């Protein structure tokens, strides 16, 4: 057995060199003014196609190329990888190898090369320009970029009405978010039964559940057991298993989270029609998260955009300030210590809560601004200063990666590829102010800085669980449109 590095994951296959015909012919195109594509036609039982190449220098079969990508699903009869930003010139030689999984066996074809003899117009190339997408003849330029694809102005790039959950588009997460800056008191689980992520009636439903109510768990195991999510884990190894250690109990809530990691983009318009969850200490995750963490992985260094969220409590006050489900909040976050700097709020003044009904939550993300809207009404706007978005922060916000941000655009870190995330979380050490008071004059049962925060939250289960009658996030549709 041999392990071949294929883009983002290590795939373990029985690898053999090819006999003629086992991998279909590879087709490569170089476009003007920029762009590159490589493809093979679909064949029976192909499960993965990977490409690795170097420009004007050789490559060994174990190397990760400067041009590298993997494709997990064929579209329109083709396995195609594209890099729309790659600039090639006539005379360039791409040295490459390709890897294909057929019937769970890996086949490698190496010592290959392609010489750029001309730069093609994209419209002159037969076959799909982007998997599942044909660019119209009147395609107009846009500032929107799609990872591995192309976009036209006003084009719908991504859309899901959730008649079913397409797991070739959405990844159902399975891991323990023990390194997340918010430190929610949940694990995200891809369950075979009693599922946290389902669809029904054309609606996505993400429902939090008590871990102690799932098979193999009890009240006692929350305090003394192990949660092993290695089978199907979608994160690093240290987020796949947890054992109780004193006050560090098992996450008491099993919830759901899905991500569009096969689709990432820079700049565009996002539309999410959703009904937010209600229930004490719950909050939804309707996010854009960074694909590559270009500016770092700690303290939101590469940014997160909360498109819409609202705490699930029907009533929640800290002093005179309302933090209940009547208050929508969202916006970009790029520093943990100063996470509130760019966030905004919108209070419902008609007595209703955001989770009472479906609303259309939308985002307009451009090289000049980030705008949030609800039901087509703008409620938040963030624009960079002369020194960029970092200029919005006081000098005391020392976690910002200043040198990297200075090297980016004025919108850095929000100038790179981001993907969609939908989920439900509970508790956390950031979303609920210490000392806040909910229905019945009950004070929040944990302190954000306390080691026993999760334990104290769980010990108050009998108080908050009866409020979880409408605890699921429901999503009617998601759509992303190019600028």
Automatic annotation (TrEMBL):
Spell out the Pfam families in the cross-references: CBM39, Glyco_hydro_16
The residue ranges of the GH16 domain are 128-483
* Keywords for the protein's UniProt record, in alphabetical order: Glycoprotein, Immunity, Innate immunity, Signal
SUPFAM superfamilies found in the cross-reference section = Concanavalin A-like lectins/glucanases
Where do the CBM39 domain residues begin and end?
21-121
Single GO term (MF): hydrolase activity, hydrolyzing O-glycosyl compounds
Q: Does the keyword Signal apply?
A: yes
Q: Does the keyword Nucleotide-binding apply?
A: no
Q: Which InterPro entries match?
A: Beta-glucanase-like, BGBP_N, BGBP_N_sf, ConA-like_dom_sf, GH16_GRP_C, Glycosyl_Hydrlase_16
Q: Which BP terms in the Gene Ontology apply to this protein?
A: carbohydrate metabolic process; innate immune response
- Signal peptide location: 1-21
Q: Which family does it belong to?
A: Belongs to the insect beta-1,3-glucan binding protein family.
Protein name per Swiss-Prot or TrEMBL: Microbe binding protein
Q: Which organism is it from?
A: Manduca sexta
